[in-house]
Task: structure prediction
Amino acid sequence: MATYAETFQRVLDGDYTDATPEDRAAAVREVIEMGAGAAAVVSFQPIPLLDLVLVSPIQIGMVQAIGRIHGYRLDHKSVLEILSTFGASILAQNLVMSSVKFIPFAGFIAAPAMAYALTWAIGEVSEHYFENGRGVDQDELRDMFKKVYREKKAEKVAAHRHDNTLKSRLEQLAEAREAGMLSEEEFEAKKAEILRDF
Result:
């Protein structure tokens, strides 16, 4: 299975000039799903503020890939300007996500849901922005971002409201690694497997 970085790179290297609208939509959906899933997985780490370093490159790469599908080549600075246009400042969103980690257990579960929802919202709003030739009103983009974020976060929270075993499964996995029963590579593969359905 391809990683999010491989997927983004394949899209960035691709040529979508003659792609049908359906092919473009499928490529965008794949990029958003990979980006949101990867953001949720990396945000599962326990250290507040580290999310800024881990999630931001995923979101930037995702926006670059979506822009490429629509014929735009963007550098990091352009992506950051786009994100601030619709109220998704990387720093602000990651500070909120990191601050929730100071809440015992609830923060441990909430951070991945927030990372997933934020990244998904960035993807959908970016798609709308590029699909409309980058000429969308800022207020419309902000409203769309807030709406998609709330919907996706609610979906994730509802899907895992009764999942009290997630933390214990991850703790058991960490204990197995510390006991030498799993290599680092096996640990990461098993962790990704557990979190894939999160």
The two ends are 18 Å apart (CA to CA). The mean pLDDT is 83. The chain has one domain: 4-161. DSSP finds nine helices and no strands in the chain.
